[in-house]
Write a structure and sequence with these properties.
globular; two-stranded parallel sheet; 12-stranded antiparallel beta barrel; 45% strand; mainly beta; single chain
Length: 282
């Protein structure tokens, strides 16, 4: 089951994307930088209005090694998510991604208790190498984007490994060509009456001082899992037992921009869709 998600822009404070040097000048109260910002806004209103666009898809998958899972009402499942991000407002590409919030349909069950976990500090210190193997929340995903190297913007692909942590899922981001990247994105669950919400904080990735931060153009990840407790199987994620007429409503919010630099593009983009109901019941 593959579904398209179209983006809807909610709020933004946009501009073109100078590097971090402008942020430092503003922090020192540099009047010249303020004057430059005003001039830029006056000269380039079209550029200031630019903001990224997002398309996304979601696919419900069976859990490897566990029969009767996947796209079945009331069954355990893994979830594959993909985001395609486009824009030219930040050094010729989209601005840096700083957060992702995923809203799951009402009736979705998330079970964290009993699953082996790692800690954010251990993941960050060891790249996940010292984490229990069962704490991996799925296979390594991939993110493509742009980094700064030698005064140019070049493409790089990094791996993104999810880990179960207490109360959430963390994502270890690692790349080694053309630049070395090792960063941790931290995720936490909330459980309002409308359905589970996973909030992920994504760190800024600076590859060169004074240069634009890394930005993502394509993200794909799979997360979920199951464990055995005696004769019982416990699933990390379980699909609702009932599906509303027309399908499951789904939504994600992606946040962009450097909050430390008011000169950089900032935007929150909402991607919404309706996921078709499964044809099978558990």
């Amino acid at each position: 089951m593959l579904t398209s998600i179209e983006s809807n822009h909610q709020a933004h404070t946009a501009s073109s994307a100078p590097g971090r040097g402008v942020a430092r000048m503003l922090a020192r109260g540099g009047l010249a930088a303020l004057a430059g910002a005003a001039a830029l806004a006056a000269i380039s209103p079209a550029l200031a209005a630019a903001e990224p666009t997002v398309k996304a898809s979601a696919k419900i998958l069976p859990i490897p090694g566990y029969p009767h899972t996947g796209n079945i009402l009331g069954a355990g499942a893994d979830l594959e998510t993909q985001f395609l991000i486009s824009g030219t407002e930040y050094a010729g590409g989209p601005p840096p991604l700083t957060g992702v919030k995923v809203y799951f349909p009402k009736g979705t069950k998330i079970t964290t208790k009993g699953f082996p976990t790692c800690t954010s500090s251990v993941i960050k210190a060891t790249g996940g190498n010292k984490c229990p193997k069962p704490s991996k929340a799925g296979p390594a995903g991939h993110t493509k984007g742009y980094v700064s190297l030698g005064g140019e913007r070049v493409e790089e692909t990094v791996t993104v490994q999810p880990y179960f942590v207490s109360g959430g899922i963390d994502f270890w981001i690692e790349g080694d060509h053309p630049v070395k990247i090792e960063k941790l994105a931290t995720g936490s669950w909330a459980f309002p009456a409308s359905g589970p919400v996973l909030t992920v904080e994504v760190p800024l990735i600076e590859t060169l001082a004074e240069a634009p931060d890394a930005s993502a153009t394509s993200i794909i990840n799979i997360a979920g899992g199951a464990i055995k407790k005696g004769k019982k199987t416990v699933y990390y994620g379980t699909i609702p037992k009932k599906c509303p007429s027309g399908g499951f409503p789904a939504k994600a919010e992606l946040t962009f921009g450097n909050p430390l630099n008011p000169m950089e593009t900032g935007a929150t983009v909402t991607a919404s869709t309706t996921v078709p109901c499964p044809t099978k019941k558990g």
